[in-house]
Amino acid sequence: MNKRVILKQRPDGIPKKEDFEVRIDALQLPLKQGEILVKVEWISADPAQLVWISGVKSYMPPVRIGDTVRAFGVGLIVNSHAAGFKVGTYVSGLLGWQEYCKVHVSKVEKIPMNVNPTLFLGIFGMTGFTSYIAIKVLGKIKKKQVVVVSTAAGAVGSVAVQIAKAEGCKVIGITGTASKIQWLKDIGISDVINYKTENVASSLKTLCPEGIDLYLDNVGGEMLDAVLLNAKKGARMILCGAIQSYGQKKAQPLYLYPLVISKSLKMKGFIVTDYQNKFDEGFRYLESLYKQGNLKYKEDVVDGLENAHTALQKLARGQNDGKMLIKVLHEAPKL
Predict the structure, then answer these.
(1) pLDDT, tens digit, for every residue of 204-216?
(2) pTM of the model
(3) Which residues form a coiled coil (predicted)?
(4) Domains and CATH numbers, the chain
């Protein structure tokens, strides 16, 4: 049997428990050629899921009502009809909120057995690749440049600030709680702005009076406006997320967009899966930083599929303390 969580209704604002439903169904066996059965162990909770379940058209189609909630996960192959994918191998992919996932091997990636599998949902997964693409590939940072990152203590943000620091940049992180400020200081980011208690535009002017070279935006709205005020001529704005608008009926407005023209700014939005040709070099880079002790991470874990919705709630409220994960607690399987 397979326990899974389906989308029962579209959330109105921050997702609630009532928006989801736990179901237990028979496993869809036997496997076809090229398919594997994965025992899902860990599931990633990401801001993108807030968009996927909202019904808003995006780079991926919305999760349909009645479907298993879409999510990246890692798990162990327990049955295989695919050459080269042995039982006992760990894989990652869009496995969803469920205990078991029947999937074609073209939709998953093998991951090493000697590494903590949750790292492939975090610093060695889409989280890490997003940061690498934003800062290195698109941001094209250079030593001593000023780099500002919003949601800097989050999964993507915390990797991004560490990449920029390793490249010799002056790094400014923006976050919203004392504990997150301390975490950033613990990983070597001394210049941190608390957007809940400070005026972001004024604090940026104090910390970088000559202006900002690169900004990684995960928020949008008024925070992006504050950065535009302090951007150097020709600065790069890499748009990764817009958490301030997720779950809202209207996106937060951007008032100072004329500065993009007058300052000759470059603004670039991106979806990480459009850069899969950069994943191998990104992994090598991130692995090197990790082995050197220059890439640290935190995980915030919710136990059980029944509580998976709380992971999205914490993300939406900015209450997560590190990479948000859901641990799948398996009952005795009935295959």
Answers:
(1) 999 999 999 999 9
(2) 0.89
(3) none
(4) 2-121+298-327 (3.90.180.10), 126-291 (3.40.50.720)
